[in-house]
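Protocol check, entry for the methods section draft. Step 1: assemble the input record (protein sequence plus ligand SMILES). Step 2: submit for complex structure prediction. Step 3: store the structure tokens unaltered in the notebook. Ligand used here: zinc ion. Step 1 record:
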Amino acid sequence: MKKILSVFLCIVIAICTTIPCFAQDEKCNCGEPPIIYVAALGSGSVIRDAGTENETKLFRPETGEVVKQFLPLVPAVAKLLADKNYDDFGDVLIDCVNKVFGDLTLDGNGNSKPNVTSEEFHPESADHGLDHSYYFGYDFRLDPVENAQKLHTYIEEVKEITHHDTVRFRASSMGGVVAMSYLKLYGSADIETVIFQCCPLQGTAVAGELYNGKLEINKDALLRYGSQALPALDNDPVAGLLYILIEALEVAGVWDMLLGVADDLIANLQDRIYDETLIPIFSTLPGIWSFVPDEYYESAKEYMKLDENTQSGLISKLDFYHYEVQSKAENILKTTKNTGTTVYILCGYNMQRTPLVTAYKETSDGTVDTKYASCGATCAPIGETLPADYQCKDERYLSADRMIDASTCILPENTWFVKDMLHCKVHDGHMELYNWMFNSDEQMTVFDNEKYPQFLQNDVVNEQLTPVKNYENNVQRMWDIVKNSTSFYNILKFLFTVIKSYLVFA
Ligand SMILES: [Zn+2]
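Step 3, stored output:
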């Protein structure tokens, strides 16, 4: 009996150990290499004292926690308005910021404190295809090159679990920085397709200017920034009401008053805020440094007071990303494309960028400047068109609204622009475009599909992308938008556009 049992067990063990071997040799022939979504900033939580009773999520902190930590600001603001004592207010503000973000600080080599860690990502199921992408997240603070090494491990795991030799990327925002670092380190042999969606491939002006202390609050920019974020609330009546509120407070002069206070704050507290909180915390994060565009980079290192003696390890990480990845974008993208990987870049335009810096006039998706996300487009300032005497190298790449000239891009044929698209806010219309890109074995261009020319209008209400048109004036444009995508918010926006243009002409 024992003998029969042991023979039986031997057979079972033999089957168990050989089946995975057979399976591993067999490749999946579904024709759909797995898609890895290389996610944006904040995709991997940063945790203090993980696994202990003191476990705290440092990023992104829970809203309740932030409110609790910033509660002391309420009486401080009241006191400031009464006594104009900026230093007292500064004490409270700096203390709040340091409590919430202080533990994110990295050491002189760009490494985290031992008790501050980030969640790890591993593929969990073998399901793959257009409808099922793998999610790769990471610690946004760290060197993108280190995160690219983790992405490499993740790719190996995905290949093994799905029995594919190659994968496809959809990189979103900061994910593009990590994907570019990956391509620099490992090449593109394992990557069939890369889609870059709203990525700061050449940085973003808000980082460059913040790291150079170039702060400026512009009222018009601030109001545009506020109202353009409203449709993202996904609550049309609330968005509409807030829109009316923003316009009403403008008429009442409330914004002018508040901006006066904000300007005074900057004038009185900028040095202290940099020295006591921004520099000690944010100058130590290579992830954020990867957003600094080339024209701001060396002066930012000086302004943020990087110390070559105590931070040499950190500085060499920053320099490697900046000079070997960001500054070599052209070489990396062209090599990737020339070795048979299909490459697509998509960026938004005509949105107001973060209104706290002097570069508030750059057209953008609200976060990343179009010229940097597109790797080189020539763009008119927000709300304007390129000058009448502007010489375009190749008219085929000029947008119908004359806001963008894509002929100056690194990959002009493979770069798409979505008007009125907010940073990384995608809907079914985008996914359809991405699926067309993913499904094409050959490299597609902006001339290959009538449905998807280079310049597309974002229609959030109907979740579609349509070719950009030219309009005589703003009223005509808003009318076209409101009659096709009717929402309370769009109707109000149309009415205010009519009123404002009447006031201009009256
Ligand atoms: Zn497959």
